Amino acid sequence: MYAKRWRSWQYGLALAGAALLVAACGGAGDEGDTGGGQAGEPASGVGFDGTTIKLGVLSPLSGPIAVIGQPLTEGNKVWFDALNAKGGVAGKYKVELVQEDTQYKPDVTVQQYNKVKGEVVAFTQVLGTAPTLAVLPLLDSDNMLAAPASLDAFWVREQHLLPVGAPYQIQAINSMQHYLTEGGGNRQSRICTMVQDDVYGEAGQQGVDFAAEQLGFTVANTQKFKVGTENYAGQIGALAAARCEMVFLTATPTDAGKIWGTAAQARFAPKWYAQSPSFVNALAKSAVAPYLRQYVTIAAEGTEWGDTSVPGMKQMIDDVEKYAPQQQPDYYFAFGYNQARAMTAVLEKAVENGDLSRDGVMKASEQIGTLSFQGLTGDYTYGPAAKRNPPRSTTLFSVDPDKPFGLATLKYNFTSDAAKQFQFEKANP
Amino acid sequence: MTAFLQNCFAGLSLGSTYALVALGFVVIFKSTGVINFAQGGLLALGAYLGYTFSNNLAVAFGVAVLLCCASAALVGATFERIVLRRMVGQPPFAVIMITIGLLFILEPMITAIWGFDQKQITNPWNIRTVEAGGLVFGVRDLWTIGLTAAVVAAFFVFFRYSSLGLAMRVTAFDPEAALAQGISARRVYATSWAIAAALAALAGILMAAGPGGLTPSIGFIALAAFPAMILGGMDSPAGAVLGGLVIGLAEALTRGYQDELFSWAGSNVSVIVPYLLMIVILLIRPYGLLGTKEVRRV
């Protein structure tokens, strides 16, 4: 008699999967090796009519995750608007985006993928872990390239994906090393974790566990939680009872706000390190801000918004002023901007090879070599999936309500020895 | 002992929120026989209205609470007047489907107006605490418990001593007899919706005043409050309150003792506890703790 509500209340879970990274933005800079030789003009084909290259964007443009999808897609657009103003790919082929709303639902993502795959050269964005996993078999069978807007480590070894940024595990490992060397901790410190009960949480925990092995500490206590939990008194009480001196947090902003608020109320004041998706600007303006300012460090990438001493940030800010002056400082915008840069590098190579077919784009994706994001995120060494080497760098931020995104750079773009040792594997080898 | 009491306090606070939401479910079910699946949507709407009053119109928070409850009540009564009144006499299932439709309308409407960004309601509580007996109490939690107690008390006074409350009870008990006595069923239904919406709004703004802030997902708590209503008895306001508190306490205590007692069962036992409790109690008392047993003549 009682109908069930079908709408997933796992939306936090979804958010976690979508959880992107800070990233900053960026310049361009394709300095990859030049695999193929010069060739003639690419022939018209699917997604390319001889003058315009069409790229797909599968993003949640409505629904709760639109708060991520919209700025991220805006980041894609601003990059390509700036590129088109300079003539386009290779200075002559304009890029047009074909956007479809996925609502962050894997089944809808598959439908939308099938709807537009016949009119695009590649997908410059597929947002979220679950949607990406849903289309991955189709990408393989269609020999299509797509850039996932997600920092899961197992994208690294997927040939049909074009990831950007350092995966979540790297953030966790670098955070641990920082705590032990510069953050006041040592191997005997009571180091704990608090992670979402999903794949995003697992990624953070995996990084901490790896760091524990490499750096010789033990994880004193782990608290897992379901996204959307209303009351965190139990978890905070358990962490306090375990006498945790440092807690690594993998969460999304709504939960992170409740967690830190509960910790502040309980007078529980360890040193917190949190993964980038845990933070949004609103937290820096909330009542929890004084606590965050004192105890919280955010592990992310790139630099703070508006730091024009970083070339990539300067370029992005210039582009924002020209093409999206209404855009507010946003992590996800920068991520989308970086994604578009990576896709542009692939297209430039494909044009250079004279082949914008799917085979040509896939071939080009293996030839772009190391791509610089000019400081917005770490340089990514592409190539055959088995040999890819993602960035291992992290930037640590302190919370500062006076900064444009509420974050101030604490330690810029560093790579720990432990992070260099981390091995990336396919999800299902 | 301190940890136990601290967990109990957390459970009471959480349970109070559940109780407010469950009470809204029960008010409508008791008078109309319909489960209002839009309760979560009304909760979110109320919270966002509270945000508008408090932040955009710079109204004092206390006044904003009253205004958001009144606004939500107006929305509830208007919906009943415009839509549900046409469904009087129709099968409850059809009305239930309409409430589901309302939920799906409210959600995108809210995001269209207020967007998806996390918002912080200006309020005097925030994360302030007071200490007593070695325990730390969140001020917002204390207010949640206190306001819930006050609302529940007012609720029972209203039902017991006011003519409208009496009319609602009579209509719930025997609609035809109520009509025969000149009681307006329409007025009763509209009042039920107004009360349920106001309760949802109160729960919403109390939640939004916490450190998690306000997001469109705030209404999801209605799903957690649902077992509270079932557990307490679907037609029992007292049962809804009892159910809410039981569920809240069970959830908080399970979470608090997860590591010591339930680590063998995974990391999220507290999430399933409300539903386990609901199943167990329904097996023993199919009409809930305080629900009315249906009598059938065969």
Automatic annotation (TrEMBL), chain A:
User: Has UniProt tagged this entry with the keyword Zinc-finger?
Assistant: no
The protein's matches in InterPro entries, at most eight in alphabetical order, are given as:
Leu-bd (IPR028081), Leu_Ile_Val-bd (IPR000709), Peripla_BP_I (IPR028082)
Span of domain Leucine-binding protein: 52-400
Signal peptide positions on this chain: 1-28
Q: Which GO terms describe its biological process?
A: amino acid transport
Sorted alphabetically, the keyword list is:
Amino-acid transport, Signal, Transport
Q: Which domain of life is it from?
A: Bacteria
Family of this protein: Belongs to the leucine-binding protein family.
Record's protein name = Branched-chain amino acid ABC transporter substrate-binding protein
UniProtKB/TrEMBL annotation, chain B:
Keywords annotated in UniProt: Amino-acid transport, Cell membrane, Membrane, Transmembrane, Transmembrane helix, Transport
GO molecular function terms noted in the UniProt entry: transmembrane transporter activity
The record's subcellular location field reads:
Cell membrane
Q: Under the cellular component aspect of Gene Ontology, which terms does the record hold?
A: plasma membrane
Q: Which InterPro entries match?
A: ABC_transp_permease (IPR001851), BCAA_transport_permease (IPR052157)
Q: What is its main location?
A: membrane
User: A GO BP term, please?
Assistant: amino acid transport
TM region positions: 12-29, 57-79, 91-116, 142-159, 188-208, 269-290
Highest taxon, organism lineage = Bacteria
Its placement in the membrane is given as: Multi-pass membrane protein
Coiled-coil intervals in this record? none
Can you tell me which family this protein belongs to?
Belongs to the binding-protein-dependent transport system permease family. LivHM subfamily.
Q: PANTHER family per the record?
A: ABC TRANSPORTER PERMEASE PROTEIN, BRANCHED-CHAIN AMINO ACID TRANSPORT SYSTEM PERMEASE PROTEIN LIVH
- What name appears for this protein in its UniProt entry? Branched-chain amino acid ABC transporter permease
